[in-house]
Amino acid sequence: PSAMTEFKAAEKLLILNKHGCGLLTRLYRTKLAYDTDRPAFLTEKNNEAAIKTVGKRFPSLDIPRNQTTPFYAKREELLETFEEPYQNLVDVLEFKDSVFEVLTSMGSHSLTLAIAVNFGLAQAFLDLICTYLSLMVLMFRFEDRRNVAVVYCTAYELVKGTSEASFPRLGQLLVEYELPLRRLYEDFLPISKIVSDTLDSLRPAIERRYVPAEMLRKDSVLN
Question: In this predicted model, what pLDDT tens digit does every residue of 185-200 receive, in sequence order?
Answer without folding.
Answer: 999 998 888 899 898 9
